[in-house]
Specification:
single chain; 193 residues; alpha+beta; Ctag/Cox11 (Pfam 04442); 2 helices; 9 strands; 25% helix; 35% strand
C-alpha cells in the first residue's frame, strides 16, 4: 500500500491539480468568449425576427403620428395673467388653437421691477371650471416657487395638452395665472434688512 506522503503520490496529485486548473481555465475563457459573442448574435437574431426593435430602420420618425390626438376638432386656448405686486407678468401669445391630445407649449414673461430679490408663486385657474380636469400640464412654472433677482426678466414655459375626453361642447378654455410675491421680502427691503 502506497504512503500518502510519498513523492510519487505528491507528484501525481500535483499533475492532476495542474490538469484540472488547465481545464477550468479553458472553460472560463470559453464562457467569457461565448458571453462576449452573444451580444452581436442577439442583435442579429432580433433584427431577423423583428423582436425587440423599437423603430424599424425604414420608418421616418416624422411620419409617426400620435394616435391619441383628436384631429376632428379644435379647442381655442386663451391665456391671461394677473399680478399682485410691482412687476410685469404676461403671456407671449394671447391664444392658440390645439387639437385635443396634441402637446403644446406657451411662454409667460415676468420682469421683477423691484430693486431686490423676490420669491413668487403662480396659481392657475381655468374657465370654464369643468375644463380643469381636462387641462393636463406636463411642465409649468407654477409647479414651484420662482426666485427672481432684482430687475430680472425671465421667460417661463408651460407645456400641456387637452385630454381628448374633454366634452365636445367646450370650444374655448381660458388659462389664467395670478402671480404673487411669497414672504415678506418687500417689507424687509424697505426696512433695510
Amino acid at each position: 500500500m502506497a504512503d500518502h506522503d510519498s513523492p510519487e503520490v505528491k507528484s501525481e496529485s500535483q499533475t492532476l491539480n495542474w490538469v484540472m486548473l488547465k481545464k477550468l481555465t479553458v472553460i472560463a475563457v470559453a464562457m467569457f468568449g461565448f458571453g462576449y459573442a452573444l451580444i452581436p448574435i442577439y442583435k442579429q437574431i432580433c433584427e431577423l425576427t423583428g423582436v425587440n426593435i423599437l423603430t424599424p430602420k425604414d420608418i421616418d420618425l416624422k411620419e409617426i403620428k400620435n394616435s391619441q390626438i383628436d384631429m376632428s376638432r379644435e379647442v381655442t386656448i386663451e391665456f391671461d395673467a394677473n399680478t399682485q405686486g410691482p412687476w410685469r407678468f404676461r403671456p407671449t401669445v394671447s391664444s392658440i388653437k390645439v387639437h385635443p391630445g396634441e402637446m403644446a407649449q406657451v411662454v409667460y414673461e415676468v420682469v421683477n421691477k423691484q430693486s431686490y430679490k423676490m420669491d413668487a408663486q403662480a396659481i392657475p385657474s381655468y374657465a370654464p371650471q369643468q375644463a380643469t380636469a381636462y387641462f393636463k400640464k406636463m411642465e409649468c412654472f407654477c409647479f414651484k416657487q420662482q426666485t427672481l433677482e432684482a430687475n430680472e426678466a425671465r421667460q417661463m414655459p408651460v407645456t400641456f395638452y387637452i385630454d381628448p375626453a374633454l366634452p365636445k361642447d367646450v370650444k374655448t378654455i381660458t388659462l389664467s395665472y395670478t402671480f404673487f410675491e411669497v414672504g415678506l421680502k418687500q417689507q424687509d427691503a424697505k426696512a433695510g434688512l
